Amino acid sequence: MPAPPIPNPQSAVENWRSRALLSLPDAGKVLGISRSSLYKMANAGEVSLVRLGGRTLVRSEEVARLADGVETWRPSERATKARAAKVDRPTVAGKGGA
C-alpha cells in the first residue's frame, strides 16, 4: 500500500486569487499574519469578513487589496537619528563600544 501524500501547507493557498472566498487561516498565510490579526483588522474596519455556512471567511479581493496595498517599510526618522548619534558618540576605553 503506498504511503499517504504528505500535506503541503502551501497547497492550501496556491492560486488563492482564483478562489472567491478564503478561510481566515488561509488568508493569514497569504498575508503572513495570524487569524486573530485578521479579526482585529475587521474590528478596526480595515477588512470585511463574511459568514457562510457557519464559517467566517474573507473575500479574495479583500486579501488582494491588503497584499497589494502594503507600504514599503522604511526606518522612522527617529531611528535614523538615533543610529547617526550612536555612530558620532565616542566610545569609552574598555567598554567595548560599537
Protein model, in words:
With 98 residues, the protein is an alpha+beta fold. 39% of the residues lie in helices and 12% in strands. The chain has four helices and three strands, in the order βααββαα. The protein has a three-stranded antiparallel beta sheet. A hairpin with a 2-residue loop joins strand 2 (49-52) and strand 3 (55-59). It is elongated and about 65 Å long. The protein starts with 20 loop residues before the first strand and ends in a 10-residue tail after the last helix.
Radius of gyration: 22 Å
Q: Write down how many β-strands occur, each being a DSSP E stretch of 2 or more residues.
A: 3
Strand order of the largest sheet: 1-3-2
Residues in β-strands, percent: 5-15%
Structural class: alpha+beta
Count the helices. How many?
Answer: 4
Largest sheet: 3 strands, antiparallel
End-to-end distance, in Å? 61 Å
Could you give a short description of this structure?
The chain has four helices and three strands; from the N terminus they run βααββαα.
Q: Any descriptors?
A:
single chain, 98 residues, alpha+beta, three-stranded antiparallel beta sheet, 4 helices, 3 strands, 39% helix
Outline the secondary-structure elements.
Layout: E1 21-23, H1 24-31, H2 35-43, E2 49-52, E3 55-59, H3 60-68, H4 77-88
Antiparallel strand pairs: 1-3, 2-3
